[in-house]
Amino acid sequence: MSTPILETRNLKMYFPVGRTLTGKPRRLLKAVDDVSFAIRRGETFGLVGESGCGKTTVGRSIVRLYEPTDGQILYDGQDIARLNEKQLVPYRRRMQMIFQDPYASLNPRMTVSSIIAEPLLHSGMSKADQNARVRELIDLVGLKPDHMQRYPHEFSGGQRQRVGIARALASSPEFIVCDEPISALDVSIQAQVINTLESLQEKLGLSYLFVSHDLSMVRHISHIVGVMYLGCMVERAPVGELYQHMLHPYTKALMSAVPIPDPDIAAASERIHLSGDVPTPIDPPSGCRFRARCPYATAKCAETRPELREVAPDHFVACHEI
Asked: Which of 174, 200, 212, 181 has its CA nearest to residue 46?
């Protein structure tokens, strides 16, 4: 087993909501609350859950777009959670992020060539070497040389996302956070982008944190999958194990909502409907976060928060009843 390239330990990300006259936060929104996992080199870790569960916040905290409230973020064994901006510089070159909206994340006033070259401006490379690197990246992500002098609005959504991927690769990173990179794209284009990411991983040995609510795509691209609910990790396992032997009630409900293309199998499948609404992360339930919607909840679930424990080889579940 290779050592992890990245590991989070008890990661927490709280946001203040409202302030008193003295400047203290009135309440805290617990977007990420005690999340731990590891990603090995060349591996893709899929992070899934419904909107608002904290999965994007995890990704942004890892690359330090957010300042973590507590916990550790270990990159190659070094805790980067408390490093200042100067100390983070070498790690920022090794970690990059692909954003959800390829149009909003690209400067509309810059050409594709300038966008991709921007991370190279302070690399010490000559202008000729920078141009050569941009041409190399353009080819690597499946774009054409004549695209270099065009602007983002001249491209389709899939092409814009390829530009975003090329920009992320410019500094030769080892680890990339893919924050729902296909959710803003047409279904016909999503598979192309996923295939590009897989091809780049094979060629360059990249490691990914793939954040998505598309469970079918996560199944296709991931090696390990983690399921989040209301800021907490409720289940984590290798992709084949999780999809064949899901154990947590929330995971089962989430998987039951995935469309099945075969009408006979779909008709025979049982859709699990959860009662109630998702609680607010400002005032989450005591004990298990999922207990208010869980059909198996007991008194213990309200008293004690379940720990993520190993119930089968590499299969971890946070549930008192399993």
From this structure: 212
What local confidence, expressed as pLDDT, does residue 259 receive? 64
The residues pairing with 316 across neighbouring beta strands, listed in sequence order, are 236, 310
Are the CB atoms for 10 and 36 separated by under 8 Å? Answer: yes
Query: What is the structure's pLDDT at 102?
Result: 78
Q: Once rounded to an integer, what is the mean pLDDT over residues 195-208? A: 94
Q: Token digits for 90?
A: 């070498």
pLDDT the model gives residue 29: 93
Nearest CA to 236 out of 55, 22, 23 is that of 55
Whether pLDDT at 260 is above 70 = no
State the alpha helices, DSSP H only, in 205-320.
Answer: 215-221, 239-244, 249-256, 263-268, 299-303
Please tell me the distance from the alpha carbon of residue 258 to that of residue 181, in angstroms, as a whole number.
Answer: 19
- 201 contacts 178 by C-beta, under 8 angstroms: no
Has this prediction a pTM greater than 0.85?
A: yes
Q: Give me 24's structure tokens.
A: 């203290």
